[in-house]
Design goal:
Blueprint: E1 2-6, E2 10-14, E3 17-18, E4 21-29, E5 34-40, E6 45-53, H1 54-59, H2 63-75, E7 84-89, E8 93-98, H3 106-113, H4 118-137, E9 140-141, E10 150-152, E11 158-160, E12 167-168, H5 187-191, H6 197-214, H7 224-232, H8 244-253, H9 264-268, H10 271-274, H11 295-298
Antiparallel strand pairs: 1-2, 3-4, 4-5, 5-6, 6-8, 7-8, 9-12, 10-11
Length: about 350
C-alpha cells in the first residue's frame, strides 16, 4: 500500500495491485485526484491512472462534476486526445486507466527549451488546435487549456488531457462559471457575467502559442490585480523575432472581443498553420471501456450542486499566479518549483 494525502486532510491508500494492474509510481497530483503510472500485468504495458476517492467525491459534493468528466472523456476519440482505456473500482477508490505519455507535459518541454523553433511549434500547435476543433465540433468546451494539460507521447506527438472543467454546451448557450487558470483566461471570463466557451478556449490557445514560441507568458504582472488588468485590456507585446504570420495568428486568437477571434477551424486554415501537411484524425475503435464504475457512487449524484464543483478565479489558491509564487509569470519559463499557497 502507498498512502497519499488528497486535499488538505483526506488520506487514501493505493494498493500495490488492483484489477490486473500493478502500482509503479506517483507522477502527478491534482485537487481531487492522484495520477500514478501502472503496469498491466497481462502484457507488461504501462498506463497512466487517475485515482479518486469515492468518499472524497461525495464529501465535497463533486460527484456530478466527476460523472460529467467521465461521460465526456469516454466519448472522445481523436489522435491528439489522451485515450481512456477503461475504468475500474474497488470499495473505496476509482481508477481511470489512460494512455501513458512518456515525455510528460508541454510546460516542462518548453521550459527545457526556452521557446520552440517555428517548425516544431507549428507542428505541435496544429495538433493542439486539431484536438480543440474536434471538441468544439462535438459542442464540448475544455475551459482549462494550458501547457500543463497538454501531454507528449514517446514520439513528441500531442495529447490533450484533463477534462475536469469540460462542458457540453448547446449552440448559442453562454456559460457563467469562472474557471480555469488565470494566466490563460479570456478577458470576458474575468469581467462578464456570461461568455462563449468556444471563444474563451480560442483565447487560451493564443496564450499557448505565445508561450510555445517565446518561452514566457504574455503578461509581466507583479500581482493578480495587474494580471487581470493586462488580460482585460489585451495588453501584451509580441517580440519582434516572432515571424509576422505567427504574430498575426496570436493576435487573431487573443483579440479582446470574442466575436472577432478565429474559430478552431479558421485557425487551422491560417497561413502559418496551413502548410504543415499534417492531419490529425479520429481512430475508430480506439476506446475500450470493459468495466463500469460501481453504481452506488452515482446514487449520490442528486446532491445539490454547489459553486465548489468549479474553481473560481477568486478562490482558486492552487492556481493563483504571482511573480513570487509561480515561475510561469517570470520573463522566461523556469522549471516548476513547489510552493505553499497562502
Amino acid at each position: 500500500m502507498t498512502e497519499v494525502l488528497l486535499g488538505r486532510s483526506h488520506h487514501i491508500q493505493i494498493p500495490s495491485f488492483f484489477s490486473g494492474y500493478s502500482f509503479d509510481q506517483i507522477i502527478g497530483q491534482g485537487s481531487f485526484s492522484i495520477v500514478i503510472s501502472v503496469i498491466r500485468v497481462s502484457d507488461n504495458q504501462r498506463f497512466a491512472c487517475k485515482v479518486l476517492s469515492q468518499k472524497f467525491l461525495v464529501d465535497h459534493k463533486i460527484v456530478d462534476k466527476f460523472k460529467r468528466e467521465v461521460e465526456i472523456f469516454q466519448s472522445l476519440n481523436h489522435s491528439n486526445i489522451v485515450r481512456l482505456v477503461e475504468m475500474v473500482s474497488d470499495d473505496k477508490l476509482i481508477y481511470l486507466i489512460m494512455e501513458y505519455c512518456a515525455k510528460g507535459d508541454l510546460y516542462h518541454f518548453v521550459a527545457s527549451k526556452g521557446g520552440l523553433p517555428d517548425t516544431t511549434a507549428r507542428l505541435m500547435f496544429r495538433q493542439i488546435v486539431s484536438a480543440v476543433r474536434y471538441l468544439h465540433s462535438k459542442s464540448i468546451v475544455h475551459r482549462d487549456l494550458k501547457l500543463e494539460n497538454i501531454l507528449l507521447d514517446s514520439s513528441l506527438s500531442i495529447r490533450l488531457a484533463d477534462f475536469g472543467f469540460c462542458r457540453e454546451v448547446p449552440a448559442n448557450t453562454l456559460l457563467t462559471t469562472k474557471c480555469g487558470s488565470p494566466a490563460y483566461t479570456a478577458p470576458e471570463v474575468i469581467s462578464q457575467s456570461s461568455y462563449n466557451g468556444q471563444m474563451a478556449d480560442m483565447w487560451s490557445l493564443g496564450v499557448i502559442l505565445f508561450v510555445i514560441l517565446t518561452g514566457r507568458i504574455p503578461w509581466d504582472a507583479q500581482n493578480d490585480t495587474q494580471l487581470f488588468f493586462q488580460i482585460q485590456t489585451a495588453h501584451f507585446h509580441i517580440p519582434e523575432y516572432i515571424c509576422a504570420s505567427a504574430a498575426n495568428l496570436i493576435g487573431d486568437l487573443m483579440h479582446p472581443q470574442p466575436e472577432m477571434r478565429l474559430s478552431a477551424e479558421q485557425a487551422l486554415n491560417h497561413p502559418w498553420l496551413d502548410d504543415t501537411g499534417f492531419r490529425s484524425y479520429s481512430t475508430p475503435g480506439s476506446l475500450i471501456l470493459t468495466r463500469t464504475i460501481i453504481p452506488e457512487l452515482f446514487q449520490h449524484s442528486a446532491l445539490p450542486k454547489t459553486k465548489g464543483s468549479a474553481i473560481s478565479l477568486q478562490n482558486n489558491h492552487k492556481h493563483r499566479l504571482s511573480m513570487r509564487e509561480n515561475p510561469i509569470l517570470t520573463r522566461r519559463i523556469l522549471p516548476l518549483t513547489e510552493y505553499v499557497p497562502k
